[in-house]
Write a structure and sequence with these properties.
Layout (H helix, E strand, L loop, with lengths): L2 H27 L6 H20 L9 H28 L2 H8 L2 H12 L6 H23 L9 H20 L1 H6 L2 H25 L10 H27 L4 H6 L3 H12 L8 H18 L3 H19 L1
Helix pairs in contact: 1-10, 1-12, 2-3, 2-9, 2-10, 3-7, 3-9, 4-6, 4-7, 5-7, 6-13, 9-10, 12-13
């Protein structure tokens, strides 16, 4: 594996750690401190301000009209729809149900990439997705059997989470080409700006009147949680996603989504909300085995190179 690919794997690994911690932290914030639409607008507006500020210190990249249209679509799918529906879904359903639905991510990305990018679905890739899914489902099953959820799931919440996952999968696939041409800051500053404009009319009042900004018992802890959501799970996480897309395939990136329930479990152990059980190391091993198999599978470029080589060999023998 090349150094660039290692960087891509590291970027998406860190991203999913940040996202994994964000699930429980956001769930806490939604319990009276800020509304779903207010929290989503806070993330998006902060992201826009942070990425535009950072861009002032970097070399300016030219973005044409066609790129802006694609970035508008990416903002709609990868930020506005994805984040808004996920937060609404998380408020209405259990973390277990949300985690279960999230395991559809790699399978959907594999199918969409096959249709849009013509990426081949190999046995190794399909097997890797299945093995990784078994790891994530093991954690979710154990949580369900021990009463890990603090709220019953609901059809509405689950549907919101499902649409959120589909939206994010489409974003990963359609953003791959432009992620290879433009820098991550350029991509994110436009995407977050478009997303802010989309959501501002719906969430401005909720954000301004959020109890998290008012003094009171627990407000300081809630504000620190909000800062993590803004800086860690938004600015840093979305900075790393295009870095990964530039270096590794969307299917491989989506495989790391299986890490999120593992991260949530480890965080619960650290703060004393859970204990280390046999399923957690087994699930971790299954997930990384799945990531390895998908990484070792052939990409479209690999298949095309092999076909070209096979076509050139008969010509060489004739000469």
């Amino acid at each position: 594996m090349t150094r660039e690919k290692w960087r891509g794997h590291l970027a998406i690994f860190i991203t999913n750690i940040l996202f994994g911690l964000n699930i429980s932290i956001s769930k806490t914030l939604l319990s009276g401190w800020i509304s779903p639409v207010g929290l989503t607008l806070a993330r998006i507006a902060f992201g826009a301000a942070a990425f535009w500020t950072l861009s002032l210190f970097l070399k300016r990249e030219r973005v044409n009209g066609r790129d802006l249209l694609l970035l508008l679509a990416c903002a709609l799918l990868g930020i506005s729809v994805n984040q808004t529906l996920f937060i609404f879904g998380l408020e209405r359903t259990s973390p277990i149900d949300a985690g279960l639905i999230a395991t559809l991510n790699p399978m959907l990305v594999m199918l969409i990439a096959a249709a849009v990018l013509k990426e081949p679905i190999t046995w190794k890739k399909a097997g890797g997705v299945l093995v990784g899914a078994c790891g994530a489902l093991l954690i979710i099953w154990q949580s369900a059997s021990t009463g890990g959820g603090d709220k019953e799931g609901s059809l509405t919440g689950n549907l919101f989470c499902l649409i959120s996952v589909v939206s994010y999968c489409v974003y990963l696939v359609i953003s791959r080409p432009i992620s290879c041409r433009l820098g991550p800051v350029t991509l994110m500053k436009w995407m977050f700006l478009f997303a802010t404009v989309m959501l501002l009319p719906f969430g401005a009042r909720d954000l301004v009147n959020a109890p998290v900004f008012a003094p009171g018992d627990g407000a300081r802890e809630a504000l620190l949680s909000l800062i993590y959501v803004l800086v860690g799970a938004t600015f840093l996480a979305y900075l790393f996603i295009p870095m990964a897309l530039k270096r590794i395939r969307p299917t491989t990136i989506s495989m790391y989504n299986y890490l999120q329930p593992i991260v949530a479990g480890i965080a619960a152990i650290i703060v004393g909300q859970s204990i280390l059980t046999w399923d957690k190391p087994v699930a971790t091993l299954l997930i990384f085995t799945g990531v390895y198999l998908v990484t070792r599978s052939k990409s479209r470029a690999d298949v095309e190179r092999e076909m070209k080589k096979e076509n050139d060999e008969p010509r060489a023998s004739l000469n």
